[in-house]
From TrEMBL:
Organism: Nonomuraea longispora
Name the record gives this protein: ABC transporter permease
Keywords: Membrane, Transmembrane, Transmembrane helix
Transmembrane feature ranges: 12-34, 69-95, 116-142, 154-180, 187-216, 236-258
Length: 264
């Protein structure tokens, strides 16, 4: 199995499309953090004795606002993670690559498992980089004010939830692409789900359906329970279960399809 995972890594890391999507995700992530430095400096410069900041409309907790960006920036950049999963899976549908892969790894169950492990490890690597860089930016903001806000248990819990989000959404895009045998379908799925969560169309019709049918709404439920903006449609635990369910169903269906269809 390690050799299969290593081969899958080598395969998709040589594709420009994987690097392009990853670069776009990273640029969005860095932009949000760089923009946040100015906002955080303004908050700290005018922080009240109780740690609050008056935005003009409401009072916000400065420490919470700064530490929230550690996971909110990857969440926003992570809207493209299904597209990353799609281009990773799409390596098999280029000029008969799938047939060659089947010759190299005749056991299709092991082949699919290896691809899933490689994709998950890719998401794990991005998560580790995003969390580390996020803590660096947060430390820059609070180092002359109150560095202890970085070490609250709520911050680490949110980072763990972020890992679940990044792994599952990448696998969802991966599974949809394998199931449809088309990178374009996986990317279209990613775009449609982004549009649904921003437009809140399903949420206006039925919050219950929105919490189940829209993966990014489940991600909001998982990570943004106390954030401003449109209300969440379910609890954090429900959001976690929905994301895991989507990932398991899409990858499971893809595995069944891969083992039963011809390698073309």
């Amino acid at each position: 199995m390690p050799s299969i995972v290593r081969a899958e890594f080598t395969k998709f890391l040589t594709l420009p499309s994987v690097w392009i999507v990853t670069a776009i995700i990273c640029m969005i992530f860095l932009f949000l953090h760089i923009r946040g430095l100015g906002d955080h400096a303004e908050m700290i410069a005018h922080v009240l004795p109780d740690g609050q900041y008056d935005t003009g409309n409401r009072l916000v907790d400065v420490g919470r606002e700064i530490t929230d960006l550690v996971y909110v920036a990857p969440l926003n950049a992570g809207l493209l993670l299904p597209a990353l999963g799609a281009v990773i899976a799409g390596t098999e549908f280029r000029a008969g690559q799938l047939g060659l892969s089947m010759v190299a790894v005749p056991n299709r169950a092991r082949f699919v498992t290896g691809k899933v492990f490689a994709t998950t490890l890719c998401a794990l690597g991005l998560w580790a980089v995003f969390v580390a860089v996020g803590f660096v930016f947060a430390h820059i903001s609070v180092k002359d004010w109150d560095p202890t806000v970085l070490w609250q248990s709520a911050v680490f819990l949110s980072c763990a939830r972020l890992l679940l989000f990044m792994a599952t959404t990448t696998l969802i895009g991966f599974g949809i692409t394998i199931l449809a045998r088309s990178t374009l379908v996986g990317i279209i799925f990613s775009v449609v789900t982004i549009m649904l969560v921003f437009a809140q169309v399903v949420a206006m019709i039925s919050p219950t359906l929105d919490a189940i049918l829209v993966p990014f709404s489940a991600a909001r439920n998982l990570l943004l329970q106390e954030a401003s903006g449109p209300p969440t449609t379910a609890g954090a635990g429900h959001g976690a279960l929905v994301l895991v369910g989507w990932a398991l169903c899409s990858v499971g269906a893809a595995a069944v399809t891969m083992t039963r269809k011809d390698a073309r």
